[in-house]
């Protein structure tokens, strides 16, 4: 059994969650819970159950969400496809991605219910593949989102994002550790607001083998 504990800390509030995963052959059963499950005594609030076969399907019982994955060969390239049907928020979508080579990848996300479509291109620069550029075009909004990630030795990474539609600028520092889990600090500011007050969030993740 694997257990993951996450903590999220903001200026005005904090939250915690835990996920337990049990493998049964090719299947993986997950149970997730938040602090709402225990804050007023044990309850079903914040409890989520899911059944997953990696690379094939995910069934989320709480949101009544079904996700199926498959792949196909097109022009000697592997195209990965994901179909998602979430009855909770009445959302149906198809995602597809293809890697042209180790440095170039493209993905398309299309929502069948609303017609929204996003096209993202991922370019990994350099031989160590430590610099990642991710421009994304939102067809429905006619706007671009940009992300640049720089990875460092030791598991640290720095990511900058900018959303042209909302004029939201973000910066994220992440540290990964095989022994101590991960730690992330992110800050964002809306450049369209008159008072540009940054929002700061810290997140910690611990992984355990049980």
Structure, explained:
The chain has 210 residues and is mainly beta. It has strands spanning 2-10, 14-24, 27-34, 48-53, 57-60, 65-74, 77-86, 91-101, 104-111, 117-125, 131-138, 143-151, 156-163, 168-177, 181-190, 199-209. The N and C termini lie close together (5 Å). It comes from Cocos nucifera (Coconut palm).
List the helices and strands and how they pair.
Layout lengths: L1 E9 L3 E11 L2 E8 L13 E6 L3 E4 L4 E10 L2 E10 L4 E11 L2 E8 L5 E9 L5 E8 L4 E9 L4 E8 L4 E10 L3 E10 L8 E11 L1
Antiparallel strand pairs: 1-2, 1-16, 2-3, 3-4, 4-5, 5-6, 6-7, 7-8, 8-9, 9-10, 10-11, 11-12, 12-13, 13-14, 14-15, 15-16
Summary?
This protein is mostly beta strands. Helix content is 0%, strand content 68%. The chain is built from no helices and 16 strands.
Order of secondary-structure elements: EEEEEEEEEEEEEEEE
* Strand arrangement in the largest pleated sheet: 1-2-3-4-5-6-7-8-9-10-11-12-13-14-15-16
Tell me the total number of β-strands: 16
In the predicted model, the low-confidence regions spanning at least 5 consecutive residues are none
Radius of gyration: 19 Å
Q: What tags apply to this protein structure?
A:
210 residues; transmembrane; mainly beta; voltage-gated monoatomic cation channel activity; porin
């Amino acid at each position: 059994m694997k257990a993951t504990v996450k903590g999220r800390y903001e200026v005005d509030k904090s939250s915690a969650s835990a996920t337990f995963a049990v493998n049964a052959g090719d299947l993986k059963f997950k149970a997730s819970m938040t602090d709402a499950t225990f804050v007023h005594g044990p309850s079903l609030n914040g409890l989520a159950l899911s059944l997953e076969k990696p690379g094939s399907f995910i069934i989320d019982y709480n949101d009544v969400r079904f996700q199926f994955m498959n792949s196909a060969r097109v022009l000697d390239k592997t195209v990965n496809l994901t179909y998602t049907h979430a009855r909770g928020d009445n959302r149906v979508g198809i995602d597809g991605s293809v890697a042209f080579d180790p440095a170039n990848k493209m993905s398309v996300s299309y929502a069948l219910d609303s017609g929204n479509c996003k096209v993202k291109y991922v370019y990994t620069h350099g031989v160590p593949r430590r610099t990642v550029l991710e421009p994304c075009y939102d067809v429905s909004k006619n706007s671009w989102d940009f992300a640049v990630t720089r990875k460092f030795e030791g598991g640290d990474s720095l990511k900058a994002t900018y959303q042209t539609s909302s004029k939201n600028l973000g910066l994220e520092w992440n540290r990964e550790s095989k022994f101590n889990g991960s730690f992330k600090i992110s800050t964002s500011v809306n450049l369209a607001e008159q008072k540009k007050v940054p929002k700061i969030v810290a997140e910690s993740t611990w992984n355990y083998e049980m």
